Amino acid sequence: MTIMEKTEMVGSYIRKPLVAAILLAGSVAAQAALEEIVVTATKREQSLQDTPVAVSAYSAEALENLGVQNLTDLTVQTPSLQAYDFPTSTTNIALFLRGFGNTDSQTLTIDNPVGVYVDNVYIARTSGAILDVLDLERVEILRGPQGTLFGRNSSAGSVNFITKKPAEEFGGRVMVGGGNFGLKRLSASLDIPITDTFRAKISAAGSEEDGWVENKGPNDLAGQPGNDFYAKEQMGYRVAATWDVTDNFTADYSYDFSEADATPAYYQSQSDNRQEETTNQVLGNTAYAYVLPESRNEQSGHNLTLNWDLSENLTVKSITGYREMEETSIQNWSDTLFFATDLDWETEAFSQEFQLLGNAFDNQLSYIAGLYYFKEEGSKAETQYTNGAFPGILDALAEPGASTGLFLGGTNMGGAMIETELESTAAFLQGTFRPAGMDDRLGITLGTRYTEDDREAVRTLDPENPSINFGAGANKDDYSHWDYNVTLDFALSDTVNTYVRVATGYRAGGSAERSLDFSQTFDQEENTTYELGLKSEFADGRLRVNAAVFRSDYDDLLLTISGQPPLYASFVEVFNAGEAEINGVELDVTALVTENTMITFNYTYLDWELDGVVVPDQSFLLGGPPASATDRRGEDISDSTFIPYAPETALSVSLDHSFPLSFGSLDFHVNYVYRDEVFSQPGLGLPVPALGLVNGRIALTGVELGSTEVKVALWGKNLTDEAEEVYDLSTAGHQFNKPRSYGLDLTVAF
C-alpha cells in the first residue's frame, strides 16, 4: 500500500510542502512504503507531510533504534543540531541549531536561542536528566526561527518532546540493560485505565555508570573526595493522568521528578591523546589525583493541559507549567587552568498559555490565536579557587593545609551571588488560507507575535568570603519585539511540492554574570530567515527526497568573550557586535530499498560570514591601557571572530535491515555520523577537529510469549573507538569524546 493509498483511507489529501525531515523506523520488516508521522509543529496535529516547516521527527521506535538515551545522543544523530556538555557539568547541555546557540548555557542572565519544550511547556535551562524519565511518543526538531508559535527565545529553532498519553488499555513495559564502564539501566512504564473516562500512566527510570577517566595518582588525598570524571548515577519518575471530563472537554496532567549525581568532564592539558587510565598534572606530565566531589542536579515539573472543543470548528486550550531546578556543579580544572569552581544555582519557572484554534470559511481558513506568560526566578552562588602560579602543580580544590606531596592546597578566591528575575508576556496570531478552486494545492500562512521581556539581576558578594575578582552590581532592562512568519506552500503535482518561508525570531537581551562591571547589559539579538524547500516522493512512496536552502541574517549578534588563562580565566564578557549571515543547505533522503531494507541520508552544509564586529569601548578583556598594544576597543574583529559549533559539513548515514523469522524479526541497524571542524568559542576561535563515529544495534524483536512481547538488543557506540578532541577550553584544556561503549538491553512489553 502506498502512502497515498494510506492517506486516502483516512480521507485526507497529501499536500507536498517541504518538510526537511527524516523518520527512521525502529523495524523495517515488511514495509510497503515509508511510514507517516503526525506532528504538532504548528500547534495542531498535522501530518508531517502537510506541515510547511523544516522538521526532523523521531518516533519512539526510532529513538530506541538509534540508541538515543539522552539529549546529547539526539544531537549526534541530527546534522543541523550540534551540542556539547557545558564545561562544568555533564548534566547541562549547550545546544546549537543551524549554527546558533548559547556558549554560556549555565548562565541565568542569558537565554538559549534553541527553545526546549516538553508537551508545549518551555524549559528555560537545559540541565538535568529529564529525557531519561519521559515516556516519549516522538521528538520534533523545528529548524529556523519559531518566532510566532514558539516565541520564547526560539530564534534559532526548537526541540519539542511529546510524551505518550495514558492508554485506554492496561499494559506496561520493562527494560533492563547493562554495558561496559559499569553501566546499569532499568526503566518501566505502566498504563492503568481506572474508569472509562479516567486513565493514568506511571513511568520510572534509573541508571548508573562509572567514570571513564580514572582520577588516580601517587598523591591521593586521604579523606577528601576523589571521584572519577564522567561518573553518573540518576533516577526519576513521572506520573500522568488523562480525564475526559465530558465528550468535548479533556484534562491532561503530569508530574515528573529526576535527580542525577555526576562528576564533570575531564579537561586535560595535552591535546594529542585521550586520558583514560589516570588523570594528569600539567607540569611534569605525570599521573596526579585531584579532589573531585560529586555534583547533583534535581528538577521537577507540573503540566496541566485543558482542551475544550466549543464546536466542530473552535477549540480553546490552556497549558499551565511550573518547574523547579536545583544544581550543585563542581569542576576541577587543575590539569589545565590551575583553577576550580563550585556553583550552586536554582530556578523556578511558571508559564501559562491560552490558545484559540479554529476553522472558518468552509475550512479554507485555519487559525490559532493566543496569549503567553512566562516568569522565571533564579539564584546562583559561585565560589572560585586557584592554586596560584607556583613552580609546581597544586590541586585547586584541596583543602588548605592538606599535603599534595609538593605544596599546600588551593586558594579560595571568594564567592559572588546572583539573583535574577525574568517576566515575559506575548500575544500571537497565525492563520493559513487555502483559496477555493485550487484543490488545496496552495496555502498562504501569515503569522505575527508581539513579545515583551523584563529582566533584572543583582550581584552581591559573599559577606563571609567576598570574591576578589568581582564587585557588586545590578542591572535592569526591558525588551520588546514584533515577529512575523510568511509562508507559501504549493503542490506542483501529487509528488513534487515546494514552500517558501520568511520568518523572524529574537532573543531577549541580558547581562554577563562573570563580567567585570555587572551594570553593563547587552541588547536583544534578531534573526530573519529566508527559506526555500522542495519535497518529492517516487516509486509509490518508497523513495523520499527532501531539500531546503536557507539564509539567516542576524542583527546585533551576541558575542561571548572568555578570558585567557591563567590571569583572566574567571571573566566572561557578552556584548552585541555586528551582523552574521549563514547560508545553508539541508538534504534528507530516505529509500525503502526492499520491504526489509531502508537507507537514510541526512546532510547539512553551513557557510557563515561576520561583518561589523566591533569591540565596544566598555570591554575589559579586549581592552587595556589606552593606546597600548593590547587595547582593541573600537577595532573591527570580524576576521578573527567565529560562530561556534557551526560545522561546514555534517551528515548521518544509516542502514536498517530486518530478517523476518518464524517467531519474530532480527533487525540490524548501523549508522555513521560526521561533522567537520568546529570552533569552541566565538571570540577566541579555538578549533576542534572533525569527528566521525560509527554506531550499531542488533535486535531480536517481536518475540511473543503468550500476551507478552520480548525484545533483546545488543548495541554499540563509537565502534571504531575514535579518540578526538570535542571541546577546547581557552587553549589550555581539552575534552575528548567517549571511548567505545557497548551493552545489552532486554525489554518486556505486556
Note down, in words, how this protein is organized.
With 750 residues, the chain is mostly beta strands. The chain has one domain: Maltoporin, Chain A. 3% of the residues lie in helices and 54% in strands. The chain has 4 helices and 40 strands. It has a 22-stranded antiparallel beta barrel. It has a 5-stranded mixed sheet with strand order 3-9-10-7-8. A hairpin with a 2-residue loop joins strand 5 (93-97) and strand 6. Mean pLDDT is 88; it is low at 1-27, 389-393 and 401-408.
Annotate the secondary structure layout.
Elements: H1 3-9, E1 38-39, E2 46-47, E3 55-59, H2 60-65, H3 71-77, E4 81-85, E5 93-97, E6 100-101, E7 114-118, E8 121-123, H4 130-133, E9 136-143, E10 157-163, E11 171-179, E12 183-193, E13 198-209, E14 232-246, E15 249-262, E16 280-281, E17 286-287, E18 295-311, E19 314-332, E20 339-360, E21 365-386, E22 411-433, E23 442-461, E24 473-491, E25 496-507, E26 525-538, E27 543-555, E28 558-562, E29 572-576, E30 579-594, E31 597-611, E32 649-661, E33 664-675, E34 678-681, E35 685-688, E36 691-705, E37 708-717, E38 725-729, E39 733-736, E40 741-749
Parallel strand pairs: 7-10
Antiparallel strand pairs: 1-2, 3-9, 4-5, 5-6, 7-8, 9-10, 11-12, 11-40, 12-13, 13-14, 14-15, 15-18, 16-17, 18-19, 19-20, 20-21, 21-22, 22-23, 23-24, 24-25, 25-26, 26-27, 27-30, 28-29, 30-31, 31-32, 32-33, 33-36, 34-35, 36-37, 37-40, 38-39
